[in-house]
Write a structure and sequence with these properties.
With 173 residues, the protein is mostly helical. It has one domain (12-159). It is built from 5 helices and no strands. It has helices spanning 12-46, 52-72, 83-87, 92-124, 141-159. The longest helix has 35 residues, at 12-46.
């Protein structure tokens, strides 16, 4: 089993954020597993089930994915194409410019996602789920929060002029 790599350059605040995020993801996964397991046992064992189980599992899965995406960003665990940046690594000015450009693109994409998610949150405020009755805005809300958090982290990295992480010493293709 491989150990999760800890990035030594992460601030204590980011480490706390990641610890809280990992805990929330574990809770989401645990509740999902219990809800689905109980539903399966009830359906096959007793011929009935809990209708709310599927809706709850879907909601928790969406939240878990977006919490994980936000938690993965500061460690550089998202997929990245580092070919160009890797070739410019020996040229500090060019590498700094490509790092800034990448951060600006991440911020742009995050702002676009946040704007779309905000539109969906607003629409979902008046609609409720069929079984549990929660506001439908709870489904796009994690996309809004995740993209806002990633945009903020990218902006801080841009301000700090943090160089790109080229993949935890992975080979550059």
């Amino acid at each position: 089993m491989t150990e999760r790599m800890t990035e030594p350059t992460l601030s204590p605040a980011v480490r706390r954020f990641q610890r809280v995020a990992y805990t929330l993801m574990a809770l989401c996964l645990g509740v999902m597993a219990v809800a689905v397991f109980v539903n399966v046992v009830l359906r096959y064992g007793f011929g009935s089930g809990v209708a709310a189980s599927e809706e709850l599992a879907r909601l928790l899965f969406v939240w878990m994915v977006f919490i994980g995406a936000a938690a993965a960003y500061p460690s550089g665990e998202h997929m990245a194409f580092t070919s160009l940046a890797g070739t410019l690594q020996d040229r500090p000015l060019a590498f700094g410019l490509i790092s800034a450009l990448v951060r600006l693109l991440v911020m742009t994409g995050s702002v676009m996602l946040a704007w779309g998610a905000w539109q969906q949150v607003r629409v979902g405020m008046d609609t409720h789920s069929v079984v549990l009755g929660y506001p439908a805005a709870l489904l796009p809300l994690p996309a809004l929060l995740c993209s806002s958090a990633i945009a903020l982290m990218a902006a801080l990295e841009l301000i700090q002029r943090k160089p790109l992480d080229l993949g935890h010493s992975a080979e550059v293709e």
